[in-house]
């Protein structure tokens, strides 16, 4: 069951990415990775890494694979923690998503400027790093803004309703991470055992239980 769930989650992340591929940097991958980490924990993390692997199979291996592994694992991991802490405040959840999205722009620019790939091997180039980083980051600033605005709109509207739906489905199939187990009641909390039926019948037939008063003539 868990293997099938991980496969479905990875497929929906990939499908969501392709569904909005025609609109630059408008995406639901952040939402899906956050939801799956929040509700399903390690299974969501496994689905996220499978998504990154599928992307590398489609587009080939380069520095962006490092960026994806770091970023999407961070998104899933942070929301996994928020799920365990049972954080349900829309503002907090949206703020975390936005900060992670901003961090992705910085992180990907640093890696793209610092690391390059040639002949199947990675090399580092530190010459004029901050100048090249600034130019590279500012060149893609509007793409990062589009991602931030997308998550500012999507998370307040969709995260909580989708999280509730996924929790219901997960609880039904007993795959939700962090589900609270019911604590058995202590014997002192249990109601007293009812008297056996024969004792009830004897009490009903015993004339000494009659409260009508004196029985003498």
Protein described:
- The structure is a single chain.
- The protein is mainly alpha-helical.
- The protein has one domain: Orthogonal Bundle (Arp2/3 complex 21 kDa subunit ARPC3), CATH 1.10.1760.20.
- It has eight helices and two strands.
- It has helices spanning 2-19, 29-40, 42-59, 63-84, 90-114, 129-139, 141-172, 197-205, and strands at 115-118, 121-124.
- A two-stranded antiparallel ribbon has the order 1-2.
- β1 and β2 (121-124) form a beta hairpin.
- α2 (29-40) packs parallel to α7 and α5 packs across α7 (141-172).
- The longest helix has 32 residues, at 141-172.
- The protein starts with a helix and ends in a 12-residue tail after the last helix.
Radius of gyration: 30 Å
- CATH architectural arrangement: Orthogonal Bundle
* Mean pLDDT across all amino acids: 84
CATH topology: Arp2/3 complex 21 kDa subunit ARPC3
CATH class: Mainly Alpha
Q: Terminal Cα separation, in Å? A: 80 Å
SSE arrangement, N to C: HHHHHEEHHH
Percent of residues in helical segments?
55-70%
Order of strands across the main sheet? 1-2
Shape: globular
Strand content: under 5%
Largest sheet: 2 strands, antiparallel
Low-pLDDT stretches are 180-188, 197-201
Structural class: mainly alpha
Q: How many beta-strand elements?
A: 2
Number of domains: 1
Separate helix tally: 8
